[in-house]
Records
---
Amino acid sequence: MNKFQLEIFEGPLDLLLHLIKKNEVSITDIPIAVITEQYLAMLELMEGLDLDVAGEFLVMAATLVHIKSRMLLPADETEPDEDEGGDPRDELVRRLLEYQRFKDAAGELERRDILRRDVFARSPEPTEEVDTVGFESVSLFDLISALRTVLERLPKDSAHQVVLETVSVREKMSLLLDDLHRRGKIVFQELFAGAVSRLEVIVTFLAMLELVKIRAVKIWQEQAAGPIVIAPAAPLEEVQEKIAGAAIEDEDHGA
Amino acid sequence: MERDQLKSILESLLFASEEPVTLARFAEVLEGIERKEIAAALAEMQSEYDAAARGFRLSEVAGGFQLRTARENADWVKKLYRDRPARMSRATLETLAIIAYKQPITRAEMEAIRGVDVDGVVATLLDRRLIRIVARKDVPGRPFLYGTTPEFLQLFNLKDLSQLPTLKEMEEMTLPQPAEEETPPVSSDAVTAEENSDKIDTQD
């Protein structure tokens, strides 16, 4: 299987904010044990998906575990070398709040009348377009969370012992596209309806991410905790051509 | 000079210019006419364009005046252009916001806020001339300090930095937050599948 590289623009703070929102807890009072556990599980899954997990994610994992261990100490047993008496979470909370402010600020900027997106001037050359590519109201972490749920629901037994039908991510992209164009739009979980193995689920997931990346599909959430919906975003032939073209390159490469 | 003639001249100057034109520049060109009068004429033109629902508006950006198309016509204008402009990722936009609000700022300071490496993003922003090196910080290593450019103001339709939306107070920011309801599922420009090779920065 070809290794698909996926740019992760989001960092450990984004992941934490995602988990905080998902658990509907307050930044200022993070249930550290729960969040740490979920953070580590997400990290493991991301590594399993072969996503490029930056070192910063591991540093944050260590920080969380450290905070968790300090929270377990009796309150009166103050450590002389640490800042006395403060909540071990304080520094993390401060960072999260600050980061959240700038995420909001970025959102404000994005809502302005942007040159060459909303308004145009006489200018010799095109400038930028602010466009957050595919993931409209859903973050990568929302998707990975949803994937976790799907994986957890897979039958635990392996009675079906892998019928060796190895479908590549690229083939899966084509199949998904056809399906999407036939059905208009589908809910995230339906993508995996027929999947019986972990591998199959993961291949499907990666195929979907690739389709988002090449703008062949769009993906969004209608309400905060509502279902994640996927729909085609470009003419079928155009995208199939693109996928096929890339496949040919691979064959050349492999030969 | 009659007010109507002045407005006509100003309109021609604006039409012919590819950059926002400052009041000072207008005054230079229109020798002998008071800035106050020019400013008044421009203000009148602004409301006239708005009222007449013209296909363009007179915007104040980056310290000057510029004719810009009406927002409601964006989709039509986009069809006119064959090339897709470069796109900006969420990470780029966030880093740009940090620089805009905290300038002058070093890379290390940006990284402290974002929690991830910003080298690629900063290179992209420099390359697009949305930020520039403004000085060196007087600390060991003398790192560069970055700030935004007039191009940044133009891109976001800002007259000057004081027009940036105010940062929310930290107290307001306790989660859970409601999801952004106003964001439509997908904007019309995000769905086109043409040329994706140029859209993403910080590749690899």
---
Amino acid sequence: MTSIPMEYYLVLSGFMFSVGIVGVLIRRNAIVVFMSIELMLNSANLTLVTFSSYLGNVTGQVFVFFVMTVAAAEAAVGLAIIIAIFRNKLTVDIDKINIFKW
Amino acid sequence: MSLYDIIFYLFAAITILSGFIVVTSKNIVYSAFSLLFTFFGVAGIYVLLGADFIAIVQILVYVGGILILLLFGVMLTNKITNVDIRTGTIHVLPGAVAVGVLMGLLLSAMVWTEWKTQPSETPVTTTVTLGRLLITDYILIFELLGILLLIALIGAASIARREQE
């Protein structure tokens, strides 16, 4: 970690975040949207670990723990919701799940 | 070009490429499996940054937990009669424009800011420090997260459960 500037890691996580947003915006399957959200959470974690490592302070890694826990809870609940929706409507296409549309 | 550089570029390339495959692949199963490589790439970057414990937790939680959960989700939400794993895309052009603008802002902020970095002496292992922090300074949040996980698991089980007729 000595030779690589911190910006490289930040740019990497910026790219990952953008890829995640692309996935959320353009994909139609709810599960792929879910995977893209996991990508974005991972890029945020990468930023936290980068700052923590380059400042020599471990507290940032504690926050990564918290983010991971919330991500796990979110994955469990979200997939349960997707499965419940699939049972009712027989699709996970987010264009077809528009019952609340005005 | 030192060994650190080579390892960094290798893991960065793995992460970004497999991330692209996750988003662009037409087959959900391919997306799920390339997400595996993304998680491994990020774990490698964590090791490079000296965060050994976080890297192990990343592999345990993401690869061992969340990815398996996602694969089960893929399995459970495909019609058995009509195997429709392929999915399409929507709004590609406006999405690309919006993401391009956002990525430009993000990357310019990241590159042009004068970050106050110091050549830190990383501890050999972070596990001891992390454990101390978790049971002293952050004990309240730690306990709350335990309760949150319990609630989330109970909620997930009760949402996904089939109702009995």
---
Amino acid sequence: MSMTYTIDIYKSRLSPARKLSEYALYVSFFPKILAGPIERALNFLPQITQQREIKKEDIRTGLHQIFMGFFKKIVIADGVAQSVNYAFAGSYRLSWTGAVVGTFLFAIQIYCDFSGYSDIAIGSARLLGFKLMQNFNYPYFSLNPSQFWGRWHISLSSWFRDYVFFPLGGPYGKTLRWLRNIMVTFFVTGLWHGAGWTYIIWGLYHGSLLSIHRLKESLRKTRKKPKNPFKRAIFTFGFFILTCIGWIIFRSNTLNQSLLFIKTILTDFGNFKMNIILPAETALLGLALFLAIEFFTYNNRGQRLDQLLPSTIWTAIYAGIIFLITMSLSNVPTGFIYLTF
Amino acid sequence: MKRFRIPPGILIIFYMVIIDIFINIVFHYPTDPNNTSPSALQLFFEYGRSAEGKLSRMTGLTDEDSASIIKSGWILKETEEIEKEKTSLLDKPIVTIYGMSHAVLLGKDMAKLAPDLQIRIKGAAGAVPSWSYAAYLYDKKIIHSDVVILGIMTRGVSLICTTSGATNHFDTVAPYTYPRFYLSNGRLEYIMPPFISLSEYREFFFDKNKWESYKKWLRKHDKYYDSLLFTKSMIDHSSLFRMIRRAYAYYSYRKKEKEVYDDIKGFNKNSEEVILLQKIIKEFAKQARQDNSIPIIYIVNNVFMGDRLFELIEPVLKEENILFLSSHKIIPPNDPSYYDSSSHFIEKKNIELAQEMINLIKQTRVSSSILRGK
């Protein structure tokens, strides 16, 4: 955040904060200090200096977001954490089913853990009258890598876009030049997560996916998005699988482990023995409810349940979620994944 | 005219009450204490009931109207039971195994594999090392065994300073009791609980004053006693509050376990529990040898806890020259495919362990006979 502030002032996009306290509040604002969203000074500083009015809608939106954040974190992310830890412990050979289920559960865990955290942070800020940027926007409904990076950890991906990719030249110039820009940006994105080969390869893997996608797009005369729902579902599912392969690399302890994982999935088909510990029943129940809510709200332009359903129905769903949260409280609690980055 | 709208908060509370009532009706726990197979959901929503609440449901005035778990694990057996066992002894070498369910399962498989040995099993659900040692001390006065096996598992170590099956596990409680061991000037001492047999337990449980005095005793001597978890209250009637209590129980148990065992750091070698465990093993071997029995330690390394228990007690076993069988030699502790849904070893591996134990006993018995000149 301090880098953003410094660069924006250097580039004359922002005037320096008038008071030290304003700058201090910007960098240390408690909801976002641990794991984002990585808020731009351009968006946040004016909110500090201007008179804030906390409206009823702010409180309502904030509370809804915090509530859904707890649901994602406590019921789903913590509920599947043990299964994921065992699957990626690397202490024994997984079966095909074990590897596939382990990968799927990690994809769910990292999304619910991080977007849950972001929801709690954004909701808490909203209760205080601050509007932080959206950090996740249905990333697993993406049809291609370009869409995915516009929806996953938006505050970070847009930061790399604006402060690394564009200064390198962005998507302009000769093909090789913009391909290089993409790969460098994703190399840095991987490195940002940790100084380990798995993160770097994960970054380069996504860089390659995006490069291939952009190349394909540049060869096409017209840009058409598939309108047929069946075709869209296939594209979405296909890209979800590619994302999951990335998550295997990201989550593995070593590159060898990720290769073994991928090899098991590709070559061990037919070994249906389930040799990972299944998630808690509450996590499975919560996951089913969560997926239903995601599908429903995604198809309704991301509106909240209370905006879409009569109060007699959404309050019943919320009461059910409270029960699920209570049922999940005895799960082994895990720290937020992104706090380690 | 403005239409009246119920505030969403009230509606949510209303629905929560409805769900609570629904759960209590649909997943009502069977009142028959002998019903040992309720559904998974009936069990799930019952876990958070207080220890007293669970005991009330399971304890009847007679054995017939009590759940089987109420009758198990008592160190002091009733006289008829002792006489019955004495008359059933055969002219075979006697091997007695003391411990938790893993030890019981091992004993059962050993009995199938070695008909030339008389295998006696003294077990209790979730038995901790202090229970096993106390059971041995009582049992040896009644029947002499040629071989005595003490079962210990990783999860049990942090529970050594408990005194009852009603405090050492929250989800499923059992009323059996055992002494609270402690060290005094390097000597292993113990404080006896107010009751150690089933009949004494009934006497206490159905007498309000006696039961209150027992709770006071627990508060003083049992490290895991917590009145919020133990004492029956209004909370028992609500499934929502039962789940909150269960969450608190898990939090509290994890916190206490962490003082003794940490997933990353392993055992805290300076903890009272670890020091007591080492002393119990030494005393067990000493007592057994004095009684002309062969002592063996059966080490159960729980799933995903590595071979840390083995590593912890290996120096003591070597120093005291005690025979042992550690499950990690046959079952990799970090591979869940060798463990069943209740965290016991799968049948095939349990048989291998049983065979290994029999081999160990037979080799040792032969060599000790040669040494004795038999």
